[in-house]
Known about the structure:
Elements: H1 3-18, H2 24-35, E1 43-47, E2 54-58, H3 71-82, E3 90-96, H4 102-107, H5 109-128, E4 140-147, E5 153-162, E6 164-167, E7 172-175, H6 184-201, E8 217-221, H7 226-233, E9 246-250, E10 253-259, E11 266-272, H8 273-281, E12 292-295, H9 303-310
Antiparallel strand pairs: 1-2, 3-5, 3-8, 4-5, 4-12, 6-7, 9-10, 10-11
Amino acid sequence: MELASLIKEYRNRFETKYGSRIRPAHIRAMNDILQCRTPAAGEIIVQCPDCAKIVHLSHSCGHRSCPKCQNHETGVWLDRQREKLLPVPYFLVTFTVPAVLRPIAWCHQQTFFNLLFETSVAALRDLGSDDRFLGGAIGMTGVLHTNSRKLDFHPHVHFLMPAGAIDVKNRLWKRKDWHFLFPEKALARLFRGKLIDRIRQEGWILPDGLRKHDWVVSCKEAGSGEPALKYLSRYLYRGIIAEKRIVENNDGKVGFLYRESRTGRWKKRILPGEDFLWLVLKHVLPRGFRRARDFGFLHGNARKKLRLVQL
Length: 311
């Protein structure tokens, strides 16, 4: 079942119900998805050099929320990240925004998501420089996700980082071969303090009911790092849901499958067509926002340093 066909069918109802909340980015995403691989997107003429047969192929739209596009870009990103892998244990660190802060994140997406990257990286660097853990300058790759498994608005950022650091003073590479990287509670405290401080600097009002235990940070082993890279790459491009998971469209309602995080079982969620479109389109990021970012010795400007570490 194609997302484009659902947009055609439910667009009028969607715009009637959510007209006051629709942003230009949502309109652009719908228009691009509708034109994807159609003559409206332009055509390329391909001729076989042997039999001279000519075929007209329609261009893809190139929108990162389109489930039919960007497969090549995903492969390029994965290859580039694989070249940066080091022969050390990797960890996947996840910073989650408390539920009461999500309305602020929704209203100030560009700024808030940038703050989420900055404060979580600062928290990791503080612990990474501590001699009790890594004791040096660390590197990491971060990817922003805005959805839960049920596709609700749930901003969080994943960081894949090697268990190693550069001792800048002594010009040494330090690696740790253990099953523990950082204490999650200490990371959560640092993250909480830094993000609340930046929110206050922006002049935003902190909501009531913000409790200490709402700040969840997870730090798990990720083996060689490659399986985690494949997981992170799923939502970089091609939208937040694969079309094969959209399994039902009956009586004005759309059903899709999702996997429960606790049990691992597949479940079906059914919504009115216009609500399903809103569920998908509200995860369209502001134009030009970079969902994936590299930091430390994994940054693009530190290629020589990374190559030296690899050698």
